[in-house]
Amino acid sequence: MKNKDIFLISETRTNNFTDPDVAVKIGGLWGQAQKYQQEGANFYGIYADYESDYKGDYTVSVASSFCPFKEAKTISIPAQKYHAFPVEKDVFATWQEIWKTELDRSYLFDYEEYSADGSIQIYIGLNT
What we know:
The chain has about 130 residues and is α+β, with helices and mostly antiparallel strands. It contains two helices and seven strands.
């Protein structure tokens, strides 16, 4: 996979286990992203800058495949090996299943891709 450029909408720092406002923070990011919905655009939930592993602090961002506003920062989905998890019911439930796996995760960059067709995939970065 080669690098893919997308456009940052907003980001915050949080922790799934020690931040009591994690759901509010992430929900707020997606609330901001709704203002920039456009037909045919993909949206991305990005997880990066991990302090350690899935139990540590990380930066969560929301981005789009189209430029939502003039000052939007471009970020790249890095070219690394990923394991894809299709989301069949619930995004959070899929993450809970991912946390139980024995994957050799890189903890550099993971992302959710919300496709214009309604499908959702979670991509977990792996060590090579």
